[in-house]
Amino acid sequence: MKETDVGIEFIGRQGFDAIYEKYKDLIFQTAFLYINEWYAAEDIMQETFLRYYIYMEHTRVENTKNWLLTTAKNITLNYIRDNSRAICLDLEEDEEGAYGLGESGEEIFFDKLWRREVLRSADTILDALYRRNRRWYDAVTLVYCMEKPQKQVAECMGMSLESLQSMLYRARNWIKKHYSEEYDHIHEA
């Protein structure tokens, strides 16, 4: 008989229920730490366990806790990425009423065009960073996009504050080296 890290035989529904009860709070807290949205964190927790249930039917998970944490983190980061694009588009549409009466149509047009270009540049950089190094992407997204305190992000990522700051420095230098024009465009914003 093979046992999992919770000390039970991992066969069927009972084994899944034991894993769920043991890790549901941890998975919820992980998702909530990233997004600070109660209902979204619950949905991410449920999605994580659904994927685990499907996955465990086909193969044996050696380290259940790490598998669940990694899956929850990836689902959460995908949620953040997808919703940040939607929020940017919503903000762009809402800005139509934010312009003053004194601005000409030409000024409004060029301002919108410039904002759209900044959003595209940021999207390009974040997509490339995600493909280059996912830990860099996590750190940059949490610190700079979501404006989480660096100390909190370091704890969440399981590293020292100095290591996080070093990682952010390397990520910024990589962005500058490979996307200097886009970086300068965003930095002007």
TrEMBL record:
Entry superkingdom: Bacteria
SUPFAM superfamilies noted in UniProt: Sigma2 domain of RNA polymerase sigma factors (SSF88946), Sigma3 and sigma4 domains of RNA polymerase sigma factors (SSF88659)
RNA polymerase sigma-70 region domain segment(s): 19-85
InterPro entries: RNA_pol_sigma-70-like, RNA_pol_sigma-70_dom, RNA_pol_sigma70_r2, RNA_pol_sigma_r2, RNA_pol_sigma_r3/r4-like, WH-like_DNA-bd_sf
Regions crossing the membrane: none
Pfam families: Sigma70_r2
Gene3D superfamilies: 1.10.1740.10, Winged helix-like DNA-binding domain superfamily/Winged helix DNA-binding domain
Alphabetized UniProt keyword annotations: Sigma factor, Transcription, Transcription regulation
Family to which this protein belongs: Belongs to the sigma-70 factor family. ECF subfamily.
Stored NCBIfam families: sigma70-ECF (TIGR02937)
Protein's recorded name: Sigma-70 family RNA polymerase sigma factor
Lineage summary: Bacteria, Bacillati, Bacillota, Clostridia, Lachnospirales
